[in-house]
Design a protein that fits this description.
Layout lengths: L5 H15 L11 E5 L5 E6 L7 E5 L4 E4 L7 E2 L9 E6 L7 E5 L15 E4 L7 E2 L8 E6 L7 E5 L11 E5 L7 E4 L5 E8 L7 E11 L2 E4 L5 E5 L7 E2 L15 E5 L7 E5 L5 E5 L7 E5 L12 E4 L7 E4 L4 E3 L19 E7 L2 E9 L2 E5 L7 E3 L6 E6 L6 E6 L4 E5 L7 E2 L5 E2 L8 E4 L2 E9 L3 E6 L4 E4 L25 E3 L7 E4 L3 E4 L7 E2 L16 E2 L13 E6 L7 E5 L4 E4 L7 E2 L12 E7 L7 E6 L9 E5 L7 E2 L12 E6 L7 E5 L3 E4 L7 E2 L9 E7 L4 E6 L4 E4 L3 H5 L2 H4 L3 E3 L5 E3 L15 E2 L5 E7 L7 E6 L5 E7 L4 E7 L50 E9 L2 E11 L7 H38 L3 H21 L18 H11 L11 H26 L1 H6 L2
Parallel strand pairs: 16-43, 60-67
Antiparallel strand pairs: 1-58, 2-3, 3-4, 4-5, 6-7, 7-8, 8-9, 10-11, 11-12, 12-13, 14-15, 15-16, 15-17, 17-18, 19-20, 20-21, 21-22, 23-24, 24-25, 26-27, 27-28, 28-29, 30-31, 31-32, 32-34, 33-61, 35-36, 36-37, 37-38, 39-40, 40-41, 41-42, 44-45, 45-46, 46-47, 48-49, 49-50, 50-51, 52-53, 53-54, ...
Helix pairs in contact: 4-5, 4-6, 4-7, 5-7, 6-7
Length: about 1050
């Protein structure tokens, strides 16, 4: 090996040392927040037998969720595990605290199905999980726990399905998962698609085997390995069941499923993918079988479905779990119309019956989960925040919106923050045309125009002003059911679309060619040759046993495309068969850059292309080859328009899930890269030399989309399994340098602050799928080399040096974040020290106080005054003898129609209210203290004579300020006349003087003047009382 020069070694060492400072501890206070939308795909489900309160749901790529109140509330219980796809769930029948999870999805018809890392066990009902092995299983279809011995567990392993693999078949443990033995292996292309066990004789186990191979260009379902197998000796030996059930070398079949009747284990059902799908029944434990039904609706797109389930109380009540549900009440001889095809859900995957009560049924499907507690007569639909987003983008509005296509739904639009409430309700998300696949992007020249995609080359232009859309696809000839070779244009399920940032109305779309429009979709022309390998063997009909041609396995298509933001005319393309091309003259000539990419997987998908924001010749490319059996991480960079490339060092830990979906260059900080893998998010501070996992509240899930919003410096992440997340203001990451790392105190540049005003809220109930708003105001970010010995003191001042607000906190080592809400100090609410008269039942605290709350008007501690006006403010941070200062600009809400003069009048009025309110609160505090002392003196006959009359006078004055009869009940305010304080607050609240950018009305000013005069009179009377003889005699 050739030795590196000393200078090079020093560079590598310094780079590695500096990168170590970019660890999660330094940025622990930076947290992602979920914004929506609600989610969809669940693929496994199980309930606790005999306890209808408890159920578990396994998301396709969103972890495990648990309810303990019959589905009213759900919580994620798998987020501490670095795995997201839950192929199978099981609860030990003899110990309901023991829960098993097999990871990796087995319902596969797209190049977007997450793989797993083995099997996990919880011994405390889902609170904690332990990895129990089988890390190379990739996809687990079923887990079965022995009815009486929790140490005996069977796991059905399908494998990754992308090539030959030894780790397939039925695995068994007899020691609770410490060791495993493969007890059934058919061949390296055949794995387990389903399993069942005899509830009366657990030595009898059934395995449904599926021979399948899935590439980017083909789904090949079926082969001699597929079929139903049985073991009568607890897995020691197995036999194929073919007496009346066709399968094996003489009659190859596809995906299979099997179930045993819990009430009579001699009765079995098998659902088999064949040229014509077949439902079989056995009444002798599988010794012989009878064909009951042949019906396409039982096994449509079999690779994505194919499950058969039997009621736990009726051996003749059988269900096929598919696009829609079908139910038979006579053992499969006929279908009942009692269950509507969509009653239990759509695109169904898994079904569970409570063995103690068959009335309780759970169905997992692409819309999440349906629950029935009356044997399927009615169903409740559950939606969880497990959305699978194909990609995401952002617009330039203030506040901005996020766009993306959700699997099995449509193109979505939702706000990054919602000004109508504390959360982002589901109701503010809406469709913008398109459908589930592809992307949705805002026109760079018009925020009211959205381009949204759908499969089969679908492309809509959606007008947000009219909420109408126009289909402008480049070639409107339907391709459903055709082999790719028979189509003029091959459109991938996620074909690329690029909107030019340089020329209005110019858009490109990719089939195997680049299509261009210069008039916003009115007309299109092809501007390239075929930019794929055009390999005819990759353009055959897909499916295997039955055709499955819906562009998800179209080979030799373009998958990615990007325009240089720096130089017009430079356009990059990437195909799903390993080719990268670039043009620098707008498509007149093309250069095949992939010829110069080292270690490039031959059939890798060019997942995304990221031209640099700093240099027209620089570009980054991510490549995904997992569907060819290569699970490596591939990221490339060129600095010369593709003539030479280097594979960036991707020092990721070994994993089945670190193949790369996205690479994103930060548009402000050169060399800062963000990368999305099938496991999660990484970033590199040094242009790809080192990579660091970045969690910070982002659950493990495939990252399919990364966007950076420039106005707010926000990092927006689209996950394929947990929806969309935002990391507010990534300035600390951008500005973090070696110099910052070595600073005792560093103040990061504050972002621009908008004084957003509230809007009228969506009238809908909250949901656990609601998104989370950011804190109001501007984030203040600073770095401490070590935790502060003293508190960190933060002072905010206006342009004249007047102190607006002071904050203090215990500064931690690393980056700290605190928010200023753009307001002055909160109102100084006192503690009440007396009970309302004649209401001795009102409780005081141990300190003899109670909080001052005036409900219905929601007046109480924590209330903040009016927003500061637009302008420049300074922020000073002091700690440990160090002081740093920076300015922040507060801007007007661009959505309001008022002028700066209007806001100035509003602010002045708000400050008058602020002063008067604090005067009221100060008087109440002083009066409460005096009255407390006088009430105590009234108990003593020696002082009662002077104390009681004075206390009465103070009480009457206090009663003019606020309603002294309030007990804390919400509607006490309606029992007695409101005081000066309540009326002043009513002007601020009901008049909306502080929540809309308008000057006060004449009547608001007039009423406030009256109230202010009354307050001044009370204040004057109180001062006179304090100077009087009674006060002096009282000893106060």
């Amino acid at each position: 090996m050739k030795a590196l020069p000393i200078v090079s070694l020093l560079i590598l060492v310094n780079s590695a040392c500096f990168s170590q400072s970019f660890n999660n501890e330094n940025f622990s206070q930076l947290k992602f927040r979920f914004i929506g939308p609600d989610g969809n795909r669940a693929i496994s489900v199980v309930g606790e037998p005999g306890n209808p309160d408890v159920s578990y749901l396994g998301a396709a790529s969103g972890g495990i969720w648990k309810t303990e109140d019959r589905g009213i509330n759900w919580k994620p219980v798998f987020d501490d595990v670095d795995d997201s796809s839950i192929g199978a769930l099981a609860i030990a029948p003899s110990n309901h605290k023991q829960v098993w999870a097999g990871t990796g999805e087995t319902f596969i018809i797209r190049p977007a199905h997450a793989v797993g890392n083995g099997v996990y066990k919880s011994s405390d009902a889902g609170k904690t999980w332990r990895h129990m092995g089988l890390k190379n299983s990739f996809r687990i279809s079923r887990v079965i726990v022995h009815p009486t011995d929790t140490n005996i567990v069977y796991v059905g392993v399908l494998g990754h399905t992308h090539g030959p693999q030894q780790e397939k078949g039925v695995y068994k443990t007899m020691d609770g998962g410490k060791t495993w033995e493969c007890v059934l292996f058919v061949n390296e292309f055949t794995g387990v698609s389903d399993m069942a066990i005899d509830s009366k004789n657990p030595n009898i186990v059934y395995a449904a085997m599926w021979q399948a191979e899935i590439k980017t260009w083909n789904l090949k379902s079926g082969g001699p390995g597929s079929g139903i197998y049985r073991s009568k000796d607890a897995g020691k030996t197995w036999e194929p069941l073919r007496n009346g059930l066709e399968s094996g070398p003489t009659h190859p079949v596809g995906k299979t499923s099997v179930d045993v009747a819990f009430s009579n284990p001699k009765v079995l059902y098998a659902l088999v993918e064949d040229k014509e799908p077949r439902l079989y029944r056995s009444e002798n434990g599988g010794d012989s079988w009878k064909l009951m039904q042949q019906d396409h609706s039982m096994a449509q797109r079999a690779a994505y479905y194919t499950r058969v389930r039997v009621s736990t109380q009726d051996e003749n009540r059988v269900y096929t779990v598919n696009v829609s549900m079908k139910m038979s009440k006579d053992g499969g001889q006929s279908w009942s119309d009692e269950l509507g095809p969509w009653d239990a859900g759509g695109d169904n995957h898994d079904m569970w019956f409570d063995p103690t009560d068959a009335n309780r049924i759970l169905v997992a499907h692409d819309g999440c989960l349906n629950m029935s507690f009356n044997y399927g007569k009615s169903w409740e639909n559950i939606n969880l925040p497990i959305a699978q987003m194909y990609n995401i983008s952002v617009d330039d509005r203030v506040p901005y919106y996020v766009y993306g296509n959700r699997q099995d739904a449509w193109s979505y639009r939702g706000p990054s923050r919602y000004l109508g409430g504390w959360s982002i309700p589901l109701g503010v998300w809406h469709g913008v045309g398109g459908c589930e696949s592809g992307d949705a992007k805002v026109d760079p020249f018009d925020n009211n125009v959205v381009w949204s995609q759908c499969y089969d080359g679908g492309l809509d232009v959606f007008d947000l002003t009219t909420m109408q859309m126009r289909d402008v696809r480049a070639w409107p000839e339907a391709g459903y059911g055709f082999a790719p070779s028979d189509l003029k244009y091959r459109w991938h399920w996620n074909f690329p679309v690029v909107l030019s940032k340089h020329t209005r109305g110019k858009v490109w779309a990719g089939s195997q060619y680049v299509h261009e429009t210069t008039n916003a979709g009115q007309s299109w022309k092809v501007i390239s040759l075929d930019l794929t390998t055009n390999d005819k063997t990759h353009q055959m009909s897909s499916g295997g046993m039955a055709g499955d041609n819906l562009m998800t396995f179209d080979g030799s298509t373009l998958f990615s495309m990007a325009e240089s933001p720096v130089q017009e005319g430079i356009l990059w393309t990437g195909s799903n068969d390993g080719l990268v091309h670039v043009t620098k003259d707008g498509g007149k000539s093309w250069f095949k850059a992939s010829d110069f990419m080292p270690e490039l997987p031959k059939w890798g998908t060019i997942r995304n292309i990221e031209p640099s924001h700093f240099d027209a010749s620089t570009c980054y490319v991510s490549v995904d080859a997992h569907q060819d059996g290569d699970f490596g991480s591939y990221v490339y960079k060129t600095d010369d328009l593709g003539k030479t490339w280097k594979r960036l060092t991707v020092n990721l830990p070994p994993s089945n899930s670190n193949f790369v979906h996205q690479i994103k260059e930060d548009p402000e900080k050169q060399g800062l890269l963000w990368m999305g893998t099938d496991k999660g998010l990484y970033f590199s501070p040094d242009d790809g030399v080192n990579w660091i996992r970045f969690k910070h509240g982002l659950p493990a899930a495939p990252v399919f989309g990364i966007a950076i919003q420039p106005h707010f410096n926000d990092l927006v992440i689209g996950t394929y399994g947990r929806g969309i997340f935002i990391l507010d203001d990534i300035t600390p990451i951008r500005e973090f340098t070696e110099a910052v790392q070595n600073s005792d105190l560093y103040f990061f540049t504050p972002g621009t602050a908008y004084r957003f005003q509230k809007i009228d809220a969506i009238k809908s109930k909250g949901s656990f799928s609601d998104g989370k708003n950011p804190p109001y105001g501007v984030s203040i970010n600073y770095y401490l080399k070590e935790a502060s010995a003293d508190s960190v003191k933060i002072k905010i001042m206006d342009a004249k040096g007047n102190v607006i607000k002071e904050l203090a906190e215990k500064g931690e080592k690393g980056v700290n974040r605190i928010w200023w809400n753009l307001r002055h100090e909160d109102y100084e609410f006192p503690k009440l020290r007396t009970k309302p008269r004649d209401k001795e039942w009102v409780q005081l605290s141990d300190k003899g106080t109670r909080d001052m709350f005036i409900y219905d008007l929601d007046i109480g501690p924590g209330m903040a005054p009016t927003l500061v006006p637009p302008g420049q403010y300074s922020i000073v941070i002091k700690t440990n003898g160090k002081e740093v200062k920076k300015n922040v600009q507060v801007l007007k809400d661009p959505n309001t129609k008022s002028s700066l003069a209007d806001i100035g009048k509003q602010y002045a009025f708000g400050m008058e209210i602020y002063k008067s309110v604090n005067t009221c609160l100060g008087l109440i505090d002083e009066m409460e203290k005096a009255r407390t002392e006088l009430l105590e003196k009234s108990k003593d006959p020696k002082t009662a004579r002077t104390a009681k009359p004075l206390e009465d006078k103070i009480y009457n004055l206090e009663g003019k300020i606020f309603d002294v009869h309030l007990t804390g009940a919400r509607q006490d305010i309606f029992r007695n006349p409101a005081g000066i304080l309540e009326r002043i607050f009513a002007i601020a609240k009901e008049g909306q003087t502080a929540s809309a950018d308008f000057p006060p009305t004449d009547q608001q000013l007039e009423v406030f003047s009256l109230l202010k005069n009354r307050l001044e009179k009370v204040e004057s009377d109180f001062e006179a009382l304090k100077k009087g003889v009674e006060w002096k005699k009282s000893g106060l």
